[in-house]
Amino acid sequence: MAPVSPYRQARPAESNFEDLLRPQVDYLYRLAWRFTGSVSDAEDLVQDVLLKLFPRTKELLEIEMLRPWLARVLYRQYVDSVRRKSRSPIELVYDADGEDDPLDLLPGTREGPEEHAERSSLRERILEALERLNPEQRAVIAMHDVEGYSLEELETILETPLGTLKSRLHRARQRMRTLLPMEPFSGGQRVKQ
Amino acid sequence: MNCRDFTMHLDDWLDGLLDAAGQRSIQEHLGHCPACRRRHEHAVRVQAAVRELAPPAPHPGFVDQAIARATRMTVPGPRSKWRAVVGMSLAASLVLGVAVGAFLVVWSAPVQTVALRVEQPENVRVMFNSAMPLQAAMLHLALPENLELVGYRDQRELTWQTDLREGGNLLQLPVIARGMVKDDLVARLSHGGSTKTFRVKFEVESGRRSGM
Lengths: 193, 212
Hints:
The complex is a heterodimer.
Chain A: H1 13-36, H2 39-53, H3 57-61, H4 66-86, E1 90-91, H5 113-119, H6 122-131, H7 135-146, H8 151-157, H9 162-179
Chain B: H1 3-14, H2 20-32, H3 34-51, H4 62-72, H5 79-86, H6 88-94, E1 104-105, E2 111-117, E3 122-130, E4 134-142, E5 147-149, E6 157-164, E7 167-177, E8 185-191, E9 194-205
Parallel strand pairs in B: 1-3, 2-9
Antiparallel strand pairs in B: 3-7, 4-6, 4-8, 5-7, 8-9
């Protein structure tokens, strides 16, 4: 007897999509944050993936190992968005035009002592170091060292040969060790000069 | 094994990929090389620190909004339909000339804060600078509770499609706080399959100043 899918094809696509994806959004967000290092960018990345996937709800119903499949889609979208951003015509800037900076009139936009301390923290230094890796290196660190995917699994997910992944991981770790000094947990030099 | 070999095999060792002979060789080297012991400790600590880096929580309501937006917005309507959602006045204000005012909000950071007083309308102006003309960019606004866009009393969400001209594009949002505003105003600009989200926080003073 053929296995019965818990998701009926006859149900509205919205219901199937929500049943399948809602339990995965936290995971996607977490991974996206590890790729981007920013809450807003991670949310945008997840949103873009969901927008892209909804028309493929039928295909999603057939996927057995949904999480790694979603990780692959997220990774592709991330690399794509980094490439697009590097040539994006959109930037949001202040055109002061010689006037006083109106941001000075707004409360809450300056860095206070608390925020400064936060930026100086170890967490911030690690984030800064990760930011200095290229997107592919960040992704392999996030997925292998943090999320625990083996290099063999990543070979499929990232569609990259094992040898390339190994050297990418090696270089990424080396760079992190260089960026974070030998005694990274007792002050020492900041990553950003 | 010398120090160079140790450095080459360190990652394989950390990942448990060395065979028994390789592991023995590494351990022997560590037994008499303090510099490589430090290298190893450093590598382990960096790896652990990265692993323990916990992501901050997404903004409240993100999951609901992301699912809702995905299932709602994948069938793009004709341009005129989107414009009809909010009417022409807002769409027009997006491409009005550049003006600098006390409440010009510029998103150099993902979140900015604006001060308001209850029941006192203020213009929040948002500058979008585009390096080239963009056709059919989608702008979506989600208003928090107790914040109204003047003229759109009961609408919490507004979406419209518009063209961005090259250079500065000013979006003027006449807003009024009806009470304390806890959540952010969320603006999403989408174009060519990518999205950029910006947030404005509001600090609302409940009382009026004397003499006003």
